[in-house]
Amino acid sequence: MLELVNIDMAFGGVKALDHMSFKISDGSITGIIGPNGAGKTTIFNVITGVYSPTAGKIFLNGRDITPLKAYQINRLGIARTFQNLRLFTRSSVLENVMTAAQNHYINSYRENFLGSIQPAVKPDPKINYGFFDALLHLGRWRNSERTLKLNSLELLARVGLADRADQAAGTLPYGMQRRLEIARALALSPEILLLDEPAAGMNPEEVFELNNLITGIHKDFKLTILVIEHHMDLIMNICPHVICLNFGEKIAEGSGSEIQNNPEVLAAYLGTGEEEI
């Protein structure tokens, strides 16, 4: 479903990714691990169009998406969360999700009729209004807002935040803010969901609950999921396929047990010889 072929990403003289290649199967959950500075988040930034790779190509369902802009890649069905939270902190929890849902449906509608980039998910015909509908709060706007609100509340219920819908997003506990970011990404109706360190800052109980949330979302929404994470318990519990990076290079790929017993992976995390701690 997703393939990276010999991707290089350089920042001046620093090579963040070096001939990075891997394939992600449709419907899979894949983990990406590696020490700090290994290039994990750079991979997400390249896939989602935040960075244009120095060399190489990225394919989504056989289509070369390397030259596309971030918003075009998003409309083709790739959504993500961020290592550092990107919520609208002063808006309510519900408004955060509705903003993403509205952006997806309205822009998908426009792309369907005006653009060459076809969205991965067909827009809801109930969500279609123009500038004057929104300005004057006419019937089409009211009906669309009602649909968006109901859809967004369903997503909040799915991540356990329905009772916090009217609370300002910035006042949520950190673990709940992470869940809100996932709900907002789901509001974009993706085919591929990229999760950048979703368990960062969570205690063991919260990580366990997040395990269940991710596997439940994977099953219920039939998503392909790619996870960057430092919590090895999370990766090993939910990811049948794991990719390990070090200094921008892929050093190992395989099942969790294969990764855990790989000498290069152990050396990257623990050091060897004189470097061993």
Q: What does this entry look like structurally?
A:
- This protein has 277 residues and is of the alpha/beta class.
- It has helices spanning 40-47, 70-75, 93-114, 131-136, 139-158, 174-186, 204-221, 232-238, 256-260, 263-270; strands spanning 2-11, 14-24, 29-33, 55-60, 63-64, 78-80, 192-196, 224-228, 241-246, 249-254.
- The protein is built from 10 helices and 10 strands.
- The strands form 2 sheets. A 6-stranded mixed sheet has the order 6-7-8-3-9-10, with helices on both faces. A 4-stranded antiparallel sheet has the order 2-1-4-5, with helices on one face.
- The model is unreliable at 119-123 and 273-277 (pLDDT under 50).
Describe how the helices and strands are arranged.
Elements: E1 2-11, E2 14-24, E3 29-33, H1 40-47, E4 55-60, E5 63-64, H2 70-75, E6 78-80, H3 93-114, H4 131-136, H5 139-158, H6 174-186, E7 192-196, H7 204-221, E8 224-228, H8 232-238, E9 241-246, E10 249-254, H9 256-260, H10 263-270
Parallel strand pairs: 3-8, 3-9, 6-7, 7-8
Antiparallel strand pairs: 1-2, 1-4, 4-5, 9-10
Strand order of the largest sheet: 6-7-8-3-9-10
Helix content: 40-55%
Number of helices: 10
Total beta strands: 10
Question: Judging from the principal axes of the Cα atoms, what is the shape?
Answer: globular
Q: What fraction strand?
A: 15-25%
How does the helix and strand content classify structurally?
alpha/beta
Mean pLDDT: 85
What summary fits the major beta sheet?
6 strands, mixed
Q: How widely separated are the two ends?
A: 40 Å
Report low-confidence residues grouped into runs of 5 or more: 119-123, 273-277
SSE order, one letter for each helix or strand: EEEHEEHEHHHHEHEHEEHH
Rounded radius of gyration (Å): 20 Å
